[in-house]
Design brief:
The structure is a single chain. The protein is about 40% helix and about 25% strand. The strands form two sheets. A five-stranded parallel sheet has the order 5-4-3-6-7, with helices on both faces. Strands 1-2 form a two-stranded antiparallel sheet. The protein has one domain: Rossmann fold (3-Layer(aba) Sandwich). The chain is globular and about 50 Å long. By secondary structure, the protein is an alpha/beta fold. It is built from five helices and seven strands; from the N terminus they run βββαβαβαβααβ. α3 packs parallel to α5. β4, α2 and β5 form a beta-alpha-beta unit.
Length: about 170
Amino acid sequence: MEICKYSSAAALTEAVAPRESPMPKQKEILVPIDFSESSLTALRCARALAEGGNTQVILLNVLDEPGSFRTLDVLGQRNARYAQRAERLQELADRELGSQVAARIEVREGKPSVEIVRLASERRVELIVVGRHRHHGAWRWLQGHTASQLSKKAPCAVLLLQAGHHLN
């Protein structure tokens, strides 16, 4: 034991053996999936980045279309949409990532750019990989690009793949 000389009151400190460093946190890459060709390209890019490392790929689909109010079972309809999207994401993960890369499936409801940023913040992901769509004119003005919004608001690095980009 030794006396701590940096304190105004005499305190005893005990020498402690250094601890082994904990296992490094598994890195995570977030890939928003809307089932378009550009989102599939983004997933393939994320797979290439994640292979051989301690990295998990999160596949996120955001339901932004409202359910039908004609049905009395709104909750049942919503749950069915979630289940259907989760199943499609799982099939996609199995096909594109296989067993080489760990995958996590997320389905959320809301505005895509908001939900992507929210999940990236919650999970503290290291990278978002997103494919850009080609929108022109009024559609671009009204809707805005999710990718452009992400590049401004994301809490981590964002890799934007241009429309028509293909990995070799």
